[in-house]
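Lab channel / #folding
Pinned by the channel admin:
"Please post every new chain as: sequence first, then the structure tokens as a reply. Keep commentary short and put observations after the output so the thread stays searchable."

First post following the new format, from NK:
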Amino acid sequence: MDTESQSRFSTLKYALGPGLIMAAAAVGVSHLVQSTRAGADYGFALVWAVILANIFKYPFLEYGPRYAIIAKESLIEGYKKLGSWAFWIFVVFTVGTMFTVQAAVTIVTASLAAELTGLVLSPLIWSAIILGVCILILAAGQYSALDSAIKLIMVVLTISTIIAIIVAVFNTGDAPKPQPPSIWTGSGIAFLIALMGWMPIPIDGSAWHSIWSLERIKQTGRQPSLKDSLTDFNIGYIGAGILALCFLTLGALIMFGSGEVFANSGGAFSRQLVSIYTSSLGDWAYIIIIICAFTTMFSTTLTVTDAYPRVSRQILSNISTKFSADSSKSYKYFIITISIISLIVLYFAGDRFTFMVDLATTLSFLTAPVLAFINYRLVMSKHFPDEHRPPTWLRILSWCGIVFLSGFALFYTYSKLFL
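Reply from TO:
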């Protein structure tokens, strides 16, 4: 390694972290559940949707670390500077979706926990156990240790997924597959929007990323360069996008055309998900896959459980000076409160697993165009230095993304009214 490369790595290592945490949050419901369902139900017909969602959301998620590193404050503080309208739109959207999002990721994790342990408990009790463990870990400040373990598990899951795809390709060979059903029906469009809603992560994840970037600076005591922070972001983002295509491929190769459809209940879905791997790799892989799948989803639940209290604390500190954005007391209060309300949501939803997932992902997609516009306005505003504003190609992609997200949101609304 030459001197320049050594110098580059010595600075990059201080920036690495937030992007990988974002990837851990992304490789959850959108990948394990929605991408696999897309392949199982529609074959390779929705590859374009996964690719376009990743491309057109890229600018607005990239603006999270871009703003945080240069402005040295979170996007939420930036929204307040941009105007009360931007700040309160974010608040309304966050409060309106956080409990459903938390409930959705928790019920998926709970289903995998039940499959892993074999303990027959209700989905609500399992969800309460999962959230209780998350609260204890975060309250004790042990997230960094778990984060290191998650990185290892995600590597194992990635390798297992790639091997499973290779084996599935050889097993299926040139076996004919049926024509995929049309996506342009009422139910098809609803699933399409749900698929793209969290692909690879909701746009409000940009605010989470900005907060994690600031926390990373506090942790290391070093201010990373914008280049290093964006490298960290790109590693996590591109990796999450590739994995989404891998999960879709598995669903398409193994389940599409088999006559089997994914179940609506969490327990049955978890068994089907694991069987995708074991049918390719063999029964010996069961314990490895179920542990990796559970740990991956647990990392997503843990990340979301951490993100919303931080966001809520930031919101309150911008509403009233009585609240501190660094208060550990308010952080713990929000962890408990948000978790309890999410459990109440799950209580009323029952075991309607796919309903909860589709509801959360659809809400995220419908709010995406507005949040995308706000993020773009912020990095192009007078509050952000000219020399660090997005380059021309990223500005063009931003406007294309706003048109794409808005167009599909309107199309979905039309389909619900007239199809």
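NK: The radius of gyration is 21 Å.
TO: also worth noting, The chain has a mean pLDDT of 84.
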